[in-house]
Structure formats: C-alpha cells, structure tokens
Design brief:
hydrolase activity
Length: 559
Amino acid sequence: MIKPITSKTWQIATIAALIAAIVFVLMQFLPSLAYETTSERPISKEQAIETATAFVNEQTGLFVEKAEAYHDSDKDYTGYVAKYELTELHKETFEKYAPVDQYRVNIRTVGNELTAGSVYLDLYTGEIVGWNFTFAQQAEVSEEIAHLAIQAHLEQRAFPLNEKTHIDTYEQLEQIDLFGSENRRSIGYYVSNDELVIKDAVMQIDASVIDYNGKIIVNRMVTEFMLPADYTDMIKKQDFYANLWTFGVYTVISFVLGILAIIYAILYRRHTSFKYGSWMTVIATVIAVIVNLGLIRSQLGLEGQMLSDSGFFLIFTIVITAITILLGAVAYYFSFVAGDGLWRAQGFQLWPRFKEAHYGKHVWDSMKIGYLMAIIALGVQSVIFLLLTQLLGTWSANDTSQSLLNFEYSWLFPLIAWFAAISEEVVFRLFGVGIFRRWFKNTWLAAFIPTLAWAAGHTLYPLYPASTRIIELIIIGYMFTWVMMRFGFIAAMFMHAVFNTILISISMYVSGTTTDMVSASFFLVLPVIIAFVIRWLHEKRKDTQEPNAPAYPPVTPQE
C-alpha cells in the first residue's frame, strides 16, 4: 500500500543503493568485460558490407546488387567456452580462426548467379574469416584439385598444415533455394588439425570447391566447432525446458490473463474508467512497433542467407508481428482498466490520477525511489547469479538476436526497456497480482503465479540451466511487487525501466557509436525529465490545487 516516503526510508534506500551499485560493478559489470575478446570497437556495417562486396567480386567475379550486415555469433560454442572457463584459451589460439563476434554479410548478386551467399568478418578488425556461396549453376572438381585449392586458402590464414592436419570428404544434398524445394548432390571437405582442440571440442573448417564457368572457386570456407555429444545433448535438453516454460507457461498464462482482463474490466467498471490507461497503451504500442521494425531485418538475416526483402518470409513476418502487437495492445489496455478497478475495489489506490492533489509529488517521488530500487535490484541480481553459479553451475552464451548492432535504430535501443516496463508491469503486476489477490486475499501468495509466468517468459535468453532465470526473476519479480505495493504502480514502472535501461546502456557504451552513447545517457536521465515535466504540468493545473486537500498520499488504502 502507498504510504508517505519518510526521511528514514530515503536514507535506507540510498545507502542500500550505494552498496548494491558497488556489488553490481564488482560482481557483474567488471567480470563481463573480461569476456570481451578485444578492447576495440566494432567496425561499422558499411565497412563490413564494403569489404564483403569487394571480396565477392574478387572471389567469384560477380557483382553484388544488395548486401546487409548482421552481428552473428555461435551460441552453442560461446556457451561451451563460458561453461568450462575457456575464454583465455580461445583468445590465444582460436579467435584468429573463429572470432566470437562476427559480421555476417548476406549478399545478392546481379543476375542472381548466386542463389544464396554470405561472407563472415571479424566484428572488430573487418578481416574475412569465412564465406558460403551457393551458385545456381556449378560443376564438381576432382578431389586432388579441391585439396590444392583449399590448402592455398588455408596457408593464407596461417592454418597449420602438417602431419596432424586431416581433410575428410563428405557428400550431402545441398539446398538450392530458400524453400528447400530443389536440392542437388555436392561434395564437401572437413579440415581439422589435432592441435586445434579446445577441451573436447574440435575446430574444423567446412570447405567446398567448384568449377564455375571454367574457374576453380572455393565457394565455402566456414569455421565451426564440433562440440562433444554430452554438451550438445545437455543444451538440447535445456532449450526444450526453456521452450516449455515459454510456450507452456508464459504464453498460456498470458493468454488467460488477457481474457480475464477483458472480463474484469467490464465487471469492475464502476471502480475505474475505460479512459484510464489509454495513453499508456498507445505509448507501449508505438514502442512495440518501433522495436519490431528495428529487429525485423536481423530476424530474417540471421535465420538463413536471406535478405530483408525476401518476399514471402518478409510478408509472413510482418503479418505475425502485426497480429502480436495488436493482441498485445488489447491486453495492455484492459489490464490497465481491470487492474485499476480491482485494486480500488479492494481499497488500494496504487495508481493515483493526474487530477488528484499531490499527484505531481507522487510521480516525482516514484521516479526517485524507482532509481534507487532499480540499483538495489541490480545488486541483488548480481548476488543471485553468484549463488546460482556456485549451486547450479550457471553459465551464459552469446545471443545476437537482440544485439545492439542488429537493431536498425540503435540509438532507440533503450526503448526496449520502456516497452518491458509498461507492458510487463501492467499485465503481471497491476492486473496479474490484483486479480489473484482478489481470489486469494493475500498479496504475496497472489504474486506467485503472475511472477512465475513473467519469469517463464525470459527463459529463451541463453542462460543455462533454464531454471536460472526462473529463480532469478521470481526474486526480482517479488521486488517489483513489493515496490508497487509500498510506493505505487508508477514507482514499479520507473524501477523496471531504469533497471533495464542501465543494462542496455552498458552495451551501448561498450559497443555503440558516439550517437549511441549520447542516446544511452539521455535515456538514463529520461525518468527524471518525465517526472519533472509531469510535476510541473500538475502544479500549473489549477483544478489540482485543492485548498483542503488531504495529506500526501491522497488516499490511504484499507487494510
């Protein structure tokens, strides 16, 4: 319930935030920098595309019509390196052959001589480390010619060619088009060296050589790691659990909450108004559109060797995204209405109105406590990760699906933080906790199911085992719930937004451009700007200055 924030509360929160900030820096921020393979900043996408375009012309004689660059990384291998603490060994021996972070440049040539093509570059140096071209028309070459061509390229990359080097031939059915409707037989070669083994994982190069219009071309040279079966089986099992949590728990409960929100918005309409939450819904929906537009190209590019204008796949992705955004908007709106009505019916005013006295002060205080609680939550998260690492052997892998470099409008990347803060707090806290409290009569018991569902929705992030995020976010989720009950819904939203913005801003400072860093700084202080403007507008509005207004807060919740 909302109570005035006393000076003692401010003192305790400030001290706790200072301690938490130190814990976060020492236990989470600085150790994360140790996993960086270089202190350099990534080259630009334009540089990557320029280098890849020139290489395609040099290697094949073809001219590039269109090219797009995406940040890419081998999730399974980076997880393997993290789990067995092999970062330094990778840096020393394997980074030059298979950089952890790469640009994948998907290309389309003039005349469509290539049905698919990708060039892989070191994200930081721009050096080409691999490529894969599928020609519409090509002929096989003899094994002897193929070996000579492959060895010539390996010598250029300083790959050890000695008695420990093996070149093994394999045969496969090669997919010619994106739909897999046409395949053909092709010969490939696996190149490995007994010295290039990291723990139990063997580095190998997947190569292919063809005859294209009388010219011998190495059309594929991709470095990969053959991970031990026990590790890959474990990852498949954990990914299965993550999908089960996401689609079997998060999706189902979210759908049920959406339906219930519509029903309870109607049932409790006399306790609220259907105009409440409309602006917040519009803001969340606009942000959702921007975020999805920012990620749609990379979603297509990282799925295969396709470009973002790949007809059917583009249309299909847009349609699914539009439906998801629309359904989300409906859920947010009715969750605002129903959530507000449910809490007011139970005697709680967790979300005061602009017309009410002291609203400006409430928003300003909510912003300040939101910052402090967000920092405290980051410290708590750091301790949780430390404990889970010791107890469960928790480890993480690279996931570039939401990388800053794969976001079309990188300077707007922190909008993801605000989208999560608005949508998740209203669905799982304001409405989710509210409806279960109506049924169970106990706030902390009521918070469990919506908090579990919220945590389940984050298990697809590559943090292993999958139960790690469940445990971590149930604790963090209860912190959000406590903040909402103690300081109000607005404070919980500010806390969530600041929490996510800090984490996102770190990546922008580390990997972003100057513009990205300026934007990160702006978004870090955005809650202050928002709260200041709202307080100023509220003070200017005459009908909010009631001479006999009750003491802050405007309404005392019932027990």
